[in-house]
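SAMPLE LOG
Freezer: B-3
Tube label: C17
Construct: single chain, 257 aa
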Amino acid sequence: MSKIPFTGKSQQARQGQQTTQTVVSTDPLAPAENLSYENPLLEDPDALAERLAQSEDFVRNNRNVLLGILAVVVLAVVGGFGYYTWRNNQDTQAQAQMFKAVNYWESDSLKQAMKGDGKAPGLATVANEYSGTKAGNLANFYAGVAALKQGQFKEALDNLEDFSSDDYLVQSRAYSLMGDAQMELNQPKEAADLYAKAADHNANEQFSPGYLLKEAGAREIAKDNEGALKAYNRIITEYPTAQEVGEARQFKARLDK
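STRUCTURE (predicted):
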């Protein structure tokens, strides 16, 4: 007969386990000194009571510190909620304030759009007084475009520099308009860098080729023919179906002579 291997389930193992098990009295009145608890706080009322007493002593001895921490937390929560509410109210007010100015802007009444009409404030006022709001941020864009159209190039640049947008098309447009302002201020190199920034900001086939063409032209004016050729080549190789490819080839051929 083959021998049964010794495992945890074999008869030998069970016998060994029986000899090592602790014998617990069945008498409910027997003392519990020999009992061991896996979690004394949950199973031993005395241990739990002692721990609670220690906690009470800690709270009593550190009452001022705990109250100070609680006060800081409460102030932070209340302050954060108050600031959020204030910001929302400010943004709502800014939108209402700039409504008339935007109407003037859309109808090309740029002076009233920028400075106001005596009753409603202009874009410049909204941008300054509500600079931390979404509406104030948008007012910077409108004001920048209006100033550019009026030939106020430094003011246009200042407003557009204060504008930012998560919309990549609008932000790219802002970079390009800043480049236009720099060109008018006779800063072609700075303008070219801004056009390149517009082209590379989430590059796309619809707008990037046009920005690259403007970059190349600005670099030519800045006497940077190598940079201009690089921009023309980018149009030709990266956007072969763009309508700007014909102009890029023509201007590149002129520089290659």
